[in-house]
Amino acid sequence: MSAPIHEKKHNKILIDGNWLFHKGKISKLKIKKQNPSVFNDYQWEKISIPHDWDIKGPFLIKHKSGTSGGFAPCGTGWYYRNNK
């Protein structure tokens, strides 16, 4: 007779909602001082993931990318989600 197999219960945490996005740089000092309980999301965009921030352009025709005729220039983007 074999011993019973005990199933481990796993908690699932969905992380596909309640995301914010900010395009552009944020100073390191501002990040260090940011307290999630008083997080100022005024300049942040509410988004769904998956998310492609480059799709809003602008697209540079002089830098062709395949048959699409242009690509969005690189930059900095920040994603934020409060996991409470």
Any chance you could write out the topology, listing elements then pairs?
Elements lengths: L18 E5 L4 H6 L11 E3 L29 E4 L4
Antiparallel strand pairs: 1-2, 1-3
How do you describe this structure in short?
Helix content is 7%, strand content 14%.
Using brief descriptors, characterize the structure shown.
1 helix; single chain; mainly beta; three-stranded antiparallel β-sheet; 3 strands; 84 residues
N/C terminus separation: 45 Å
Q: Flag low-confidence runs.
A: none
What is the rounded Rg?
Answer: 21 Å
The number of strands is 3
The proportion of strand residues reads: 5-15%
The arrangement of helices and strands along the chain is: EHEE
Q: Report the oligomer.
A: single chain
Anisotropy-based shape: flat
Strand order of the largest sheet: 2-1-3
Taking the sheet with the most strands, its summary is: 3 strands, antiparallel
Query: Level of helix content?
Result: under 10%
The tally of helices reads 1
Mean pLDDT: 75
Q: Report the structural category.
A: mainly beta
Question: In words, what does this structure look like?
Answer:
With 84 residues, the protein is mostly beta strands. The chain has a domain at 19-50 and 58-80. Helices cover 7% and strands 14% of the residues. It has 1 helix and 3 strands; from the N terminus they run βαββ. It has one helix at residues 28-33; strands at residues 19-23, 45-47, 77-80. The protein has a 3-stranded antiparallel β-sheet, with no helix packed on it. It is flat and about 75 Å long. It starts with 18 loop residues before the first strand and ends with a strand. The mean pLDDT is 75.
